[in-house]
Amino acid sequence: MPKLKVDGIEVEVPAGATVLQACEAAGKEIPRFCYHERLSIAGNCRMCLVEVKPGPPKPQASCALPAADNQEVFTTTPMVKHAREGIMEFLLINHPLDCPICDQGGECDLQDQSIAYGRGQSRFQENKRAVTEKYMGPIVKTVMTRCIQCTRCVRFAEEVSGVEEIGAIYRGENMQITSYLEEAVTSELSGNVVDLCPVGALTSKPYAFEARPWELKKTLTIDVMDAVGTNIRLDSRGRQVLRAVPRINEDVNEEWATDKTRHAVDGLVRRRLDRPYVRRDGKLVPASWDEAFAAIADVARTAGDSVAAVAGDIVDCETMFAAKALLKSMGSSLLEGRQTGMTYDTSSLAAVNFNTTIAGVERADAILLVGTNLRWEASLVNTRVRKAIKRGAKVWAIGPETELTYKVEWLGDDLAVLGDLPEAVTEAFGKAERPAVIVGGAALKGAQGATLELAKSLNLVRDGWNGYNVVHFSAARMGGLMLGYAQKDGISALHGAKLAFFLGADEADFAKFTGYKVYIGHHGDKGAAAADVVLPGASYAEKSGTYVNLEGRVQRGNRAVFPPGDAREDWTILRALSERLGNVLPFDTIEELRAAMALDCPDLAQEGLVTFAWNPPSLGTEAQGVLAGYPIKDFYLTNAICRASPTMQRCSAELVHGETFAEAAE
User: Fold this and answer.
1) Which residues make Cβ contacts (< 8 Å) with residue 255, sequence separation at least 6?
2) Per the database record, which ranges form the 4Fe-4S Mo/W bis-MGD-type domain (predicted)?
């Protein structure tokens, strides 16, 4: 480990570290534009210049210079100061004076560093160059005259998202960053280039001219658009969420977020349920809370214990627990969260968990994907698989061929392959130190037993490593399974219930439910249309909630804004309804609810990764059937919030269905 001095401070850094990292370890701030911790080193902005001895008598780029023993680094000498001022002058030669109308204003690295390290005045009097705007799709807005050619977006597209559709054309002063043929970038992670861009060249198109950062209230919470559990910050003004941006969590999402996570928030203010409704003469009509509760109580008196609850994909654990407690007081345990009809054995939670952990997949050296389109089901797990490949991992897949952004050897779409894997696969897994199998929803129904058999035959579970993984794509799935939202026969066991509660469940086949249907949710989507009573609830942005991601990590989100109109937090609706039904639930605050939930399921008591004991059930090892497709048909329209979002509708139309949209000048 090299030892060196930075401004007289001795530091020791890991082998392979750069001088820039050594300076940071010594507590020194080094300005940079092109350098980013998660991208390859480009060394093209030269803003990170420092003086190094021994070495040539000139400043050197610290981001590309390896740290070595007995180096002396100086970050504040007159030579360094003069060099940085010169570099900043060059960067600003063609940069327009756009700050008053630039969406990056207040969050701009160029603003901050020009004030901290620039000259304070300009000596440039020639005309500035102008660059035509590029089209990058419905997510990213471009003002390429502002671009300083740091190439962060190019490196992100190539190295992280794996969709190499952003690059540079021309040379020297004429260099321009553009998308391939100036068409929409097809990556579901394209919005991350907005965060990466250190100037205002790439900004958020849906958020353009909406607000300044100092106007916004910032709330830390958890994303519910998939089961990864992305840590996000919701920025709101008044009663509206204006944007969602990722927070750094190395174990979950690093610092990335999908486009759905970022831009579905404009669906939070559209198609909202803001008052109760009761179906009369075949039509839903507005009603008071008393009238809605009275209608439910009338049915409950005759329903007895024939009561069921169906949990949706984006509901929180508190709501599911309150519904479970209400059903228990009525003598029922008909709970189900797999609303689309999926069935699989849930007697062992380890057998339906992502046991390797999201971060752990990076260390796998042989990976088999079974029935999963990982790019759509868990985009940020897909980026980890890409990192594993860079470390030398090989990937095979069973299922219909699709573009996963990396090289995959497809073994066909017949599940029978699980019982007779090619010799090359078994040989590679036999030699692997950290083998992993990732099973998707498409394979769970007919091949759960066969995939569990692979855990034995491929030796996936060993000291310090569990390579058996199941991918869920619903934020509520693992929490629901921990709370018992699973029937042996799946949702079909609930079809005959005389009274059914749908907790934000919009994907169920409502025609098969013969009883009275009560929908508790926040959007006027499929569930509300089929219900006999609609009770307006709160979205994930309007309540504090507990969520468990696909690896069993318990996380808690906070309320950013209040629900609209008469809508209330879901658990408070169930608590108020319990009084009307004569079975008062024993909690009046969310703290009391969480204490009761912790008694029922101790693993939900506090945040952190839950480790499930490996005791898989013994199921049949024969896998039959051909995988005709994957569960997610449209990445951008997977839940009620997305379907209400104009941005997600545009993304679906353009990126999934291939529709073309004319720009203003066309």
Assistant:
1) 38, 195, 246, 247, 248
2) 216-272
CA dist 319 and 331 (Å) reads: 18
Last residue within a domain, chosen from 417, 447, 470: 470
Q: Which of 199, 185, 203, 242 is nearest to 219 (CA)?
A: 242
58-78 pLDDT tens trace: 999 999 999 998 889 999 999
- What is the percent of the chain where pLDDT is above 70? 99
pTM of this prediction? 0.93
Instruction: Show the 3-state SS of 28-62.
Output: CCCCCCCCCCCCCCCCCCCCCEEEEECCCCCCEEC
pLDDT tens-place string over residues 303-312: 888 999 999 9
| Same structural domain, 364 and 446 | yes
Which CATH number covers residue 137? 3.30.70.20
Say if 25 falls within a structural domain: yes
Distance CA 232, CA 240 (A): 16
Asked whether residue 508 carries a pLDDT value surpassing 60, the answer given is yes
Q: What is the CATH number of the domain that holds 24?
A: 3.10.20.740
Residue 445 within a domain: yes
116/188 same-domain check = yes
Please say whether the dihedral angle defined by the alpha carbons of residues 469, 605, 317 and 639, taken in this order, is positive or negative. negative
Judged on CB neighbours under 10 Å (0-12, 13-18, 19+), 618 is exposed
Question: pLDDT tens across 526-535, in order?
Answer: 999 999 999 9
Phi/psi at 357 (5° precision): 75, 155
Cβ within 8 Å of residue 602, ≥6 positions away: none
Output the six-digit token pair for 634. Answer: 């449209």
What is each CA distance from 357 to 207, 354, 492, 551, 647, in whole angstroms?
A: 33, 6, 32, 5, 31
Helix segments in 26-156, DSSP class H = 78-92, 109-117, 152-156
Q: What is the CATH number of the domain that holds 448?
A: 3.40.228.10
Q: How far apart are CA 620 and CA 517, in angstroms?
A: 36
Cis peptide before 14 (omega within 30 of 0): no
Residue 175 structure tokens: 């260099």
How many domains are there within the chain? Answer: 3
Residues 133 and 38 in one domain: no
CB atoms within 10 A of CB 529: 12
666: confidence class by pLDDT, cuts 50, 70, 90: low
Domain-embedded: residue 551:
no
Residue 256 lies in a domain: no
Domain that holds residue 191: 99-204
Residues 56 and 109 in one domain: no
pLDDT digits (tens, 9 = 90+) for 421-432: 899 999 999 999
